[in-house]
Amino acid sequence: MLIGAHVDQTDPIAEAQARKAPLVQFFLGDPQGYQGPEVRYAGGAEALRAAAEEAGVALYVHAPYIINVATTNNRIRIPSRKLLQQHMDAAAAIGARGLIVHGGHVNKADDPEKGFDNWRKAIEATDLKIPLLIENTAGGDNAMTRYLDRIGRVWDAISACEQADLVGFCLDTCHAHAGGNPLETVVADVLKVTGRIDLVHCNDSRDDFDSGADRHANFGAGRIDPDLLAAVVREADAPVVCETPGGPAEHRADFAWLQQRL
Predict the structure, then answer these.
(1) Facing residues of 72 across strands?
(2) 118: CB partners within 8 A, 6+ apart
(3) What is the distance between the alpha carbons of residues 244 and 59, in angstroms, rounded to a whole number?
(4) Domain ranges, residue 48
(5) What is the CATH number of the domain that holds 148?
(6) How many CA atoms lie within 13 A of 133 on its CB side?
(7) How does DSSP assign the chain, residue by residue?
(8) Spatial distance between the Cα atoms of 151 and 197, rounded to a whole number of angstroms
(9) Do residues 145 and 154 lie in contact, with contact meaning Cβ atoms separated by under 8 Å?
């Protein structure tokens, strides 16, 4: 079981080694901005790729939170598509195993079908050089990937795309819990509609079930049953990224907590 953490991008190899982790996830630039990706590692993308290969560390990139390719608002959707392609190119350049992106949402008055079709158009318009992993989200009644039926509709919409095999799924335990999806069955439920789980974001939640609140907690410090967290990881059988608070010491403690229960 490969378990790592979300880290600062300046030197992700050093961050991985400080945690004794075989994989790390990070942003390339500002997660809340449209400025485009930025590789801060000394020597740039090629140097980071070579260092990761030498160290045996797998890299995952999280796309900016502001990307929303589902929306009907052209002033958001069009820049989102451009930013998604830029981050796809940058993630591929560093040799990342995948690019994680949130599912986005439509406006309150919109027909959700428009959001599903906009996802199809986004996949058709993007050159997927590495797997694009769509992540479930915690809140919002108009979200594309909070509820299982809508996740299924996103998959239905993109299934006929030429690059559908390069679209994967990232299951976030905090988001599932806060989004009202029972962790007892979430792995089977997701596999039923997507056919795959490529990555798990394993996080405890500071809030109650179906709260809609995306607030992560360290393992054992939140509201999710410890056995359920371990069961999701075990059943999903995919690499794990802990997006829990803290630095190397806290993350190593979270890894040990999870490994003990696995």
Answers:
(1) none
(2) 69, 70, 71, 72, 77
(3) 17
(4) 3-261
(5) 3.20.20.150
(6) 24
(7) --EEEE--SSSHHHHHHHHT-SEEEE-SS-TT-SS-----STTHHHHHHHHHHHHT-EEEEEPPTT--SS-S-HHHHHHHHHHHHHHHHHHHHTT-SEEEEE--B--TTS-HHHHHHHHHHHHHHS--SS-EEEE--S--TTBSSSSHHHHHHHHHHHTTSTTGGGEEEEEEHHHHHHTT--TTTHHHHHHHHHS---EEE--EESS-TT-----EE-TTSSSS-HHHHHHHHHHH-S-EEE--SSSHHHHHHHHHHHHHH-
(8) 12
(9) yes
Note down pLDDT in tens along the chain; length 262 residues.
899 999 999 999 999 999 999 999 999 999 999 999 999 999 999 999 999 999 999 999 999 999 999 999 999 999 999 999 999 999 999 999 999 999 999 999 999 999 999 999 999 999 999 999 999 999 998 999 999 999 999 999 999 999 999 999 999 999 999 999 999 999 999 999 999 999 999 999 999 999 999 999 999 999 999 999 999 999 999 999 999 999 999 999 999 999 999 9
- Cα(164)–Cα(157) distance, rounded to whole angstroms? 10
Number of domains in the chain: 1
Contacts of 240 (CB under 8 A, 6+ apart): 1, 2, 3, 4, 199, 200, 201, 202, 233, 258
Distance between CA 100 and CA 26 in Å, rounded? 10
Q: Which amino acid is at 173?
A: T
Which residue in the block uniquely carries the two structure tokens 């000394």?
A: 42
Tokens coding 92: 């591929």
**The amino acid at 5:** A
